[in-house]
Amino acid sequence: MTMDDAADPRHAHREEGFPPQHQDQPGHIDEMTPRPDHGESSYAGHGRLQDRRALITGGDSGIGRAVAIAFAREGADVAIAHLPEEQADADETIALIRRAGRNGVGLAGDLRDEAFATDIVFETRSVLGGLDVLVLNAGYQHDIDGIENLRTERMRRVFDTNLVSQLFTTRAALPDLEPGASIIVTASIQAFQPSPGLIDYAMTKAAQVAFVKALAEEAGPRGVRVNAVAPGPIWTPLIPATGWDAERLATFGADTPLGRAGQPAELAGAYVYLASQESSYVSGSVLAVTGGKPL
Q1: How far apart are CA 86 and CA 237, in angstroms?
Q2: Which one of 50, 168, 258, 275 has the fewest CB atoms closer than 10 angstroms to its CB?
Q3: For residues 64 and 76, what is the distance between their CA atoms, to the nearest angstrom?
Q4: Can you list the alpha helix ranges (DSSP code H) found in the chain?
Q5: Is the pLDDT of residue 220 over 80?
Q6: Where are the alpha helices (DSSP H) in 60-164?
Q7: In what order do the strands lie in the sheet containing 182-186?
Q8: Is 282 in a helix, a strand, or coil?
Q9: Is the predicted pLDDT of residue 213 greater than 90, yes or no?
């Protein structure tokens, strides 16, 4: 790849689609072809989050891992919450955090459990000495072939993972957040351009946008900012675990103006910006990282 290719966003990462593959939820990095780029070899920090303390839900892989790597290399200590069955990916992420010279902590459990979703806040504060940045990133989605095939138990898992758990964690975190703290939600382009096959997921993402706007109104007078990042098609373990067929994977991301899917590493800078003082006048906003797709 030439320097011109590297600077051209159409060619900065994989341009072709992805081969057929399937995983059960939750997906795992080592079972993906190709392996996603989380910035392991490319992200360089500049001290923008020096000595901040962050909690990232779903921080073991995908967008969460990319954010954890970036935060650590920017000088933050990082706790990640993850499912017990994601322990191998979580261990790799924690090792990357520690390799950056920062404290890395793994918290295993199911965020649908109110006690766990609450306790991770207090565990983070206990181990890291405080909490300055809360990234509500954990999510679940599944493909639906017509609303008549929407299974109640899977729908409830979508709502409980994407919405209810965020309320539990935020309820525990907000009262003790100090001025200068930041809450960042991983929303989605699905909040604005919903796909029929992801109807319940899209509903939760639209609700997350309302959550961000309402919470920003409440938290702003206390000096706490609340924002969201809205990714477009990003190659994470969630994708091969969604239930899409070979054609959908082969064309994943091809409908963006940049003509390709994004990599988790390409979102890290958005989260760093929203967590840092560079965005001190930004709250209640949704930052699109969509390959050019409009919200």
Answers
A1: 11
A2: 50
A3: 14
A4: 3-7, 62-73, 87-99, 114-128, 152-159, 165-173, 199-219, 246-250, 265-275
A5: yes
A6: 62-73, 87-99, 114-128, 152-159
A7: 104-108, 77-82, 53-57, 133-136, 182-186, 225-231, 286-289
A8: coil
A9: yes
Give yes or no for a cis peptide into 26 (omega within 30° of 0): yes
What SS3 class is residue 213? helix
Query: Can you tell me the distance from the alpha carbon of 175 to that of 142, in angstroms, rounded to the nearest whole number?
Result: 34
Tell me the helix, strand and coil percentages in the chain, rounded to 5: 45, 15, 45
pLDDT in tens, 155-189: 999 999 999 999 999 999 999 999 999 999 999 99
- What type of residue sits at position 273? Y
Residues 6+ apart with CB under 8 A from 175: none
Handedness of CA 202, 203, 204, 207 (dihedral sign): positive
Tokens standing for 287? 């930052």
Cα torsion 192, 198, 200, 204 to 10°: value is -40
Neighbouring CB atoms inside 10 A of 257's CB total: 12
* Rounded CA separation 78/131 (Å): 10
Is 201 one of the annotated active-site residues of the chain?
Answer: yes
CA atoms within 13 A on the CB side of 77: 14
- The position carrying tokens 């806040």 is 121
Structural tokens at position 285: 């906003």
Helix (H, G, I), strand (E, B) or coil at 160: helix
Question: What is the pTM assigned to this prediction?
Answer: 0.95
Query: In terms of Cα–Cα distance, which of 152, 31, 154 is closest to 86?
Result: 31
